[in-house]
Amino acid sequence: MADNNHSHFQHLYFALTGIPGLEQKYYWMAFPLGAIYAVALFGNGIIISTIKTESSLHIPMYYFLCMLAFADMGLTLCTLPSMLGIFWFNYKLIAFDACLVQMYFIHTFSAIESGVLVAMAIDRVVAIWSPLRYSTILTNGVVCKIGIAILSRAVCVVFPVPFLIKRLPFYRSNILSHSFCLHQDVMRLACASTRVNSLYGLIAVIFTKGSDSLSILFSYVFILRTVMAIASGEGRLKALDTCVSHICAVLIFYVPLIGVSVIHRFGKHLSPLTHSLMANAYLLVPPVLNPIVYTVKTKEIRKKIIQIFVQTKITAEG
């Protein structure tokens, strides 16, 4: 009878968790956290602005980089309200429906970023395999269609997830493990079978990040075979150098993702602090490090940043 009464009950709010064991230091952590978000938003904003204004960057490689920056900005803005709410104002509650919305956008932007990394790998394959036909194969129309396909796949695959959570009853604990809402974290609080959720989540991960990681791997196997066929050592190094930024972006995205997945599956004995830090790294590291990597490798972006700092200095002195 008790289960029957609670079959459609849901909490009005979930309680988010900051970093376990460091609650007394939230005030001091708020400033570096704010700086991290500022770097992520500023860096990705500069990339988008530079690619938009510099005609020399109007090529497929940088169009895909622009898509990556949009995905990183989306991930950053998804977690910004709840993270700053906890660390700046010690406000840990999030409405049930707001949690579902945040969860949807976090997983959607993550799937978009994964798809963009595949597109960037394909871009490198075409550039190295057939450089003379690069602009005729990856036309603006093709790039646009790839972008629409990446967005559509992410939106459609993640769309059922909030509804699968919405149907579940929640009448026991409402305390989440992280500073934001993730599907697996919300799902574990349900007071009913989550087999359908788990199965769909597994299918979604295999269809997005699983297939994407294999596509990137096969792309680089093909790239290595093509590069090894280049006669001169200088030519081989030059070809591989064009892939360095993308390889860094792939590692920056997939290493924290794999770490979170392994800890969630096999690290139940680990401290809550470890789980929290890995989840935060998964969502915060790519938006912060990707702009740094591409700024180091792209002269036009470096110039844009220098111009902004010079203009800011002149304005301040004036």
Structure in words:
It is a single chain. The protein starts with a helix and ends with a helix. The chain is mostly helical and 318 residues long. The radius of gyration is 22 Å and the shape is globular. The protein has helices at residues 2-5, 26-53, 60-89, 96-129, 134-137, 140-158, 160-166, 183-187, 195-228, 233-241, 244-266, 272-297, 299-317, and strands at 13-15, 93-95. The longest helix has 34 residues, at 96-129. It has 13 helices and two strands. Residues 1-7 have low confidence and may be disordered.
Topology:
Elements: H1 2-5, E1 13-15, H2 26-53, H3 60-89, E2 93-95, H4 96-129, H5 134-137, H6 140-158, H7 160-166, H8 183-187, H9 195-228, H10 233-241, H11 244-266, H12 272-297, H13 299-317
Antiparallel strand pairs: 1-2
Descriptive terms for the model:
2 strands; 318 residues; single chain; 13 helices; mainly alpha; two-stranded antiparallel ribbon
In whole angstroms, the N-to-C terminal distance is: 74 Å
Query: What level of helicity do the residues show?
Result: over 70%
- Note the total helix count: 13
What best-fitting shape do the alpha-carbon axes yield?
A: globular
Q: Biggest β-sheet: count, sense, barrel? A: 2 strands, antiparallel
Strand order of the largest sheet: 1-2
The helix/strand class is: mainly alpha
Low-confidence stretches: 1-7
Mean pLDDT across every amino acid position? 89
Number of strands: 2
- How would you spell out the order of helices and strands? HEHHEHHHHHHHHHH
Proportion in β-strands: under 5%
Radius of gyration: 22 Å
Quick structural overview:
The chain is built from 13 helices and 2 strands; from the N terminus they run H-E-H-H-E-H-H-H-H-H-H-H-H-H-H. It is mainly alpha-helical and 318 residues long. The N terminus is likely disordered.
